[in-house]
Amino acid sequence: MAHADALTEHLAWWGLRRFGSDCDYFRWQRESIPAADLVELTRLAEAKRAVPADPAAERAFYDFAARSHVLPSLYSQRYDYYLAVGPLVDDRIGPSSAVLDFGCGVGILTTFYASRYPAKSFVGVDRSEASIAVATAHAANLGLSNVRFLRLDIEEESPAGEYDLIIATHALVQAEQEPGLPSRDWTTFERARDAAAQAGFEQRTGVGARLDGLRSVLAPQGRMLIFEKTRQLARRVPFQRALASRGLGLLEPPVPVRYQLVEEIAEDGPLYHAGLRSPAAVPWDEQPERSHGEELHRCRGGLAQAIYDRLPDRAVAGTFELRDQLTGRLAVEWGSAGGGLRYLATGSGVEGHEHAIVTWPQQGESGMVARLLTELEHAQRDTEKVRSLLQALWSQPVEAADPAHVPLYENRSPAAQEAWAALPSRQVARHATLRGPDGRLTHLELGRAPGVSYFYLANNFDQRQLVVMDRQRASLLDEYYDELVTEARSSGATRVPTP
Ligand SMILES: C[S@@+](CC[C@H](N)C(=O)[O-])C[C@H]1O[C@@H](n2cnc3c(N)ncnc32)[C@H](O)[C@@H]1O
Fold first, then answer.
1. Which of 39, 301, 348, 455 has the least C-beta neighbours within 10 A?
2. What is the pLDDT of residues 213-235, one digit of tens each?
3. Which residues pair with 495 in a beta bridge?
């Protein structure tokens, strides 16, 4: 059976259900868990989130979660997580014969792996006594003789033996409130190599002691499959450094994972496949995750028209007309504007039919837009190619906004830093760098580039925002700047010199 089908069957056996909406899920939760227990569960979940982590609170939560009337409902929240992570791990169990699943919980995934590989031996460890009791009973009911479960806290003792594969999924870094380590300052995504800060992160999250415990039972050529909530760069960097400092090297590039958490999308992981004595062919990447087209600002309809009408010093570089099935013809225009912006606009010329525009900073042409412009500027254009590139460009969601406030360009991704740095003849009008009570450094800046005004925000936890407006609406940026400075001050932030 294909592993996705096998996993679905396995989850059903555990009593787990998949829900498409929060509403359906919570109705089932209310039906299956008595009200008093739900109150207790919420209290325990809150206590588990404390920073620094409280092992007793964590254990109490997982013991409660293992109760027979709580387990199916609570663990169903993780249904899509299991579907995302289970097969990724399953595919990589490979030649290993002795597998340890650290923080196995009630053993939902451990029993799945064990049933997939009857010739390999699996050990699941967890410090929640009730979870281990449930895991043991369920493994027996499944008739699995190649899996054992042990109650132990890896920070206090290690399981006997040696393992050539250790799986740790959602078990090494549970401290969800832990922000991680800041970058050197707001101008960069780089983290200093600060031994004390690293030790602090490892201690607060418990990841250091857990990794040391696991490392001591990992065979000399052993591998680890690790999946934690470390997608944010501030958590990812110290986590990766914790792995690297224990001799682990990547065996393949980390695999980013997205899955549904009832109604919300979780961006999690990535899945790390690491090993001792890895040939170190895959470097540890400490830069922010980038996505295709992140430098583009895309708008449709009234917003697109508002941007087009306000682009200062608009200089048309070319136009093209495409036959469109719906409207007969689609006009495409591209060119440049003040502030070093470039644009590509489409419109059918038919009233009521949507206009669309994409703007981007001059020096940051993405693959997609670069290909489109090359095609448009080609003497013998391939119309079909232009059509499909335009379609791809608009396949991305477009944020709704008020046409009166829509910026000529806005970027909240890491690409905002490059776009800000590339603003031509940038002149700073006002700026403030503020240190929050938690040490967070935020830089706010208002300035001008030819024909435009801009607002820039950058902090040392990788947040970036660049907003470019025509001069007529520069006061909107002033208001935004003042609002943020006032807000920061009222929450205790103080001004520090700008580097
Ligand atoms: C979110 S559950 C993850 C369960 C499972 N690995 C999965 O992927 O669904 C985290 C588990 O890690 C266990 N855990 C956390 N710290 C531990 C430690 N120091 N020693 C043993 N188990 C630990 C908790 O008790 C809990 O059952």
1. 39
2. 999 999 999 999 999 999 999 99
3. 434
- The structural domains of the chain, ordered by start, are 3-276 (3.40.50.150), 297-393 (no CATH), 409-496 (no CATH)
β-pair partners for 122: 99, 147
Q: Measuring CA to CA, which residue among 129, 127, 128 is closest to residue 157?
A: 127
Q: Which of 64, 127, 154 to mutate to test the pocket of ligand 1 (most atoms within 8 A of CB)?
A: 127
User: Residue 240 — pLDDT band, cuts 50, 70, 90?
Assistant: very high
Query: Which H helix or E strand runs over 430?
Result: strand 427-435
Letter for the amino acid at 323?
Answer: R
Between CA 471 and CA 466 the distance in angstroms is 15
Q: Say which amino acid occupies 94.
A: G
Residue owning tokens 């829900």: 19
262 and 25 Cβ atoms separated by less than 8 Å: yes
Checking if the pLDDT of 128 tops 80, the result is yes
In this structure, are residues 311 and 337 in contact, taking their beta carbons and an 8 Å threshold? yes
Atom of ligand 1 nearest to the CA of 82: 9
Let me know how many helices (H) and strands (E) the chain has, helices first: 16, 19
pLDDT recorded at residue 1: 62
Does the ipTM surpass 0.95? yes
pLDDT tens track for 184-199? 999 999 999 999 999 9
Report in angstroms the alpha-carbon separations of 133 from 51, 145, 435: 28, 16, 49
Give Cα 179 distance to the centre of its chain. Answer: 14
Average pLDDT over residues 157-176: 93
CA 93 to ligand 1 center in whole angstroms: 20
pLDDT per position as a tens digit, 3-13: 778 999 999 99
